[in-house]
Amino acid sequence: MLTRWLLPFVSLVAFAGGAAQAHHSFAAFFDPAAEITLKGTVTAFRFTNPHGTIAFDVQGADGKVVHWRAETNAPVVLVRRGWSRTSLKAGDVITIEGWKARDGKPYLRLKRAYDASGKLIGTAAFSTTED
Fold first, then answer.
1. Are 74 and 34 in contact (CB under 8 A)?
2. Counting CB atoms within 10 angstroms of each CB, which of 1, 7, 17, 108 has the fewest?
């Protein structure tokens, strides 16, 4: 009798632990004291769970192109802030503000983004505490 409910319970606990680990905290990957602003050209925009991503190319002072990625909030949060699947497309020139990755890679968490004319994309900035 004990085995009949123990196996499903253990399986559920193991699955829940994996799912919780897959969704990381902001502070684990991004530095709230390291804000950065970059101007670049969008190469891809993924409007997917658990976090969307913006891939964009930034030309450095040395003329070399660096491929950056910006992690966004979940699509449900993006929609509440005025974003949609068509907010960005490859070739768009954007300016992105965000928090740099702790590991030094060209990766950041989106705070706000502006289009080529300087207009805010969406309706408001994001914070370090939103998912």
1. no
2. 1
For residue 10, give the DSSP letter: H
Confidence of residue 22 (pLDDT cuts 50, 70, 90): very low
Determine the number of helices (DSSP H) and then strands (DSSP E) in the chain.
3, 5
Q: Is the pLDDT confidence value at 7 over 80?
A: no
- Per-residue tokens: 15: 């699955």
**Strands 107-114 vs 65-71: parallel, antiparallel or unpaired:** parallel
| H-assigned helices in 45-118 | 75-80
Q: Which residues are CB-neighbours of 31 under 8 A, at least 6 positions away?
A: 99, 100, 101, 102
Query: Helix, strand, or coil here: 14?
Result: helix
Q: What CA–CA distance (Å, rounded) separates 2 from 12?
A: 16
